[in-house]
Amino acid sequence: MLIIGIAGGSGSGKTTVVKKIMHSFSREQVTVVSQDSYYKDNSHISEEERKRINFDHPESIEFDLLVEHMKLLRTGNAIEEPVYDYITSSRLKETIHIAPNHVIIVEGILLFTDKRVRDLCDIKVFVDAEPDDRLIRIMERDMRERGRTAQQVIERYALVKEMHVQFIEPTKRFADIIIPQGGQNQVAINVLVATIKQKLLQESNRSIN
C-alpha cells in the first residue's frame, strides 16, 4: 500500500491538488481521507465558546483517531470516517464508509505536525502558496462553506497567519515533495499521478502473478 500525505497552509490549494489527481483515478482505485473530518466534536460546549475555536491549532484535531484509522487502512480494513459540521462545530451522527485501496491520500493543513502521521506516510507532499493567494482562497471558502462574513474572515486571518508560522510552515522540512503555486502546478501534479499509476500497475502485476 502507498499512503501519500498532502499538507500545506490553509488556502494553499491542497484540495485542488487532490481533485486534479483524482481526475485520473476512480474512488475504487484511490482512497482519499481528509484531516478536516477529524476535528474534535465540540457539541458539549456553548455556542459562544465554539466561535472561539482555533481550527488551525494541532490540539483541535483528534489525531489519535486519525492515526488509528490510517493504521486500519494500512492493514486492509475499512473505516468509518467522521463527518464534521463547521456551522455547528460538531460531528454529525452519520459517518462515511471508507474502504482500503492500494493507494491512500490523506490531506490536511496540520497533517505533518503529528509524528505518527508522518511515519505512516510513504510520500509527504507540502503544497505551498503566497500569503495573499491563501487569504483570497480562505475568504472565498469560509464565506461559502462556513457562513462567515468577509469582515469575520479578515479578523480571523491574523490568528490563521500566526498558526501557520508557528505550526504549519515548519512542517515543510518533512516534505519529500514541495508543490509551489498549489493546484496551478500541473508538472508536480503529473509527477504524483505518474507515481500513483506506477504503484497501481505494480499491484495489478502482483495479483496476476
Description of the molecule:
This protein has helices at 14-22, 47-50, 63-74, 115-120, 131-145, 150-168, 186-208; strands at residues 2-8, 30-34, 79-85, 90-98, 103-107, 123-128, 177-180. The strands form 2 sheets. Strands 2-5-1-6-7 form a 5-stranded parallel sheet. Strands 3-4 form a two-stranded antiparallel ribbon. The protein is of the alpha/beta class. The longest helix has 23 residues, at 186-208.
SS field, number of helical segments: 7
CATH topology: the name is Rossmann fold
Structural class: alpha/beta
Question: Largest sheet, order of strands side by side?
Answer: 2-5-1-6-7
Please state the average pLDDT score.
Answer: 88
* Largest sheet properties: 5 strands, parallel
* Binned strand content: 15-25%
- The N- to C-terminal Cα distance equals 17 Å
CATH architecture: 3-Layer(aba) Sandwich
CATH superfamily: P-loop containing nucleotide triphosphate hydrolases
Residue stretches low in confidence (pLDDT < 50, at least 5 long) are none
DSSP summary, beta strand count: 7
What is the N-to-C order of secondary-structure elements (H for helix, E for strand)? EHEHHEEEHEHHEH
Give Rg in angstroms: 17 Å
- The CATH class is Alpha Beta
What's the number of structural domains? Answer: 1
Query: Considering DSSP H and I runs of 4 or more, what fraction of the residues is helical?
Result: 40-55%
Shape: globular
